[in-house]
Design brief:
alpha/beta; 7-stranded parallel sheet; 8 helices; 7 strands
Length: about 260
């Protein structure tokens, strides 16, 4: 039996990488999926692929930093599919990088808006819909960066992703009485288009160094991270809430 049969799910940041992989996986597991991101062309292509595989999906193009996008996405889930059971709030970016003295206030605010405020806005509108529907599961994409490891030049990213763990815990407490579970996944290095774009022209030695930081000596594929999101979204994790789940290939524990 499919893990998400009959469920309705929202996936943010779905146009590529982890979000795209999760949307396809959720649909393959029986969910009706609302996918959202800024790039409408990529979303349309994703919906076509899901439908070609026999799934159901609809796209909502918009910026996750805008509350109006969160409102439209939840509304689409309700009007098109009849409710909301699952939300994978995955939208995010590395944002402003560099020594703290070089980070502008604009860069700091934009990074937190993209990674933290977008998650808050999404959950703000998702939780009432889930309460109306009798419960649900919310999953955020945080990071091991700022949680179990620190890297120079990544203060805005680390702060924004660490904040998601606190948000997860607070919302897990708020949602528990209404049968809403809230968890976060903390991926390690993942082989996504956005990560590749942040290392233009990276040498094999640079990639090898990054891979070597992980116990498994490789980067994750987006589909592997999506499997962790699926577990937390499904009833297979029915007694798990308020947790920060490391899905990091052991990068948090290795010193070799």
């Amino acid at each position: 039996m499919s893990l998400l049969n009959g469920k309705v799910a929202i996936v943010t940041g779905a146009s590529s990488g982890i979000g795209r992989a999760a949307a396809k996986l959720f649909a393959a597991e029986g969910a009706k999926v609302v996918v959202t991101a800024r790039r409408s062309e990529e979303l349309a292509e994703l919906v076509s692929e899901i439908e070609a595989d026999g799934g159901e999906a609809v796209a909502v193009a918009g910026d996750a930093r805008d509350e109006e996008t969160a409102v439209r996405t939840v509304s689409e889930a309700i009007t098109r599919f009849g409710g909301l059971d699952i939300a994978f709030n995955n939208a995010g970016a590395l944002g402003a990088m560099g020594p703290i003295g070089d980070i502008t206030l604009e860069g700091w605010n934009e990074t937190l808006a993209t990674n933290t405020t977008s998650a808050f806005l999404a959950a703000k509108h998702q939780m009432p819909a889930m309460i109306e529907n009798g419960g649900g599961s919310i999953v955020f994409t945080s990071s091991f960066v700022g949680h179990s490891a620190g890297f120079p030049g990544m203060a805005p990213y680390a702060a924004s992703k660490a904040a998601l763990v606190g948000l997860t815990q607070a919302l897990a407490i708020e949602g528990g009485a209404n049968r809403i579970r809230v968890n976060a996944i903390l991926p390690g290095g993942t082989d996504t288009p956005s990560n590749a774009a942040n290392l233009p022209g990276a040498s094999p030695e640079t990639r090898g160094f990054i891979e070597g930081l992980h116990v498994l000596k490789r980067l994750a594929q987006p589909e592997e991270i999506a499997q962790a999101a699926l577990h937390l979204a499904s009833d297979a994790s029915s007694f798990i809430t308020g947790t920060a789940l490391l899905v990091d290939g052991g990068v948090s524990i290795t010193r070799t």
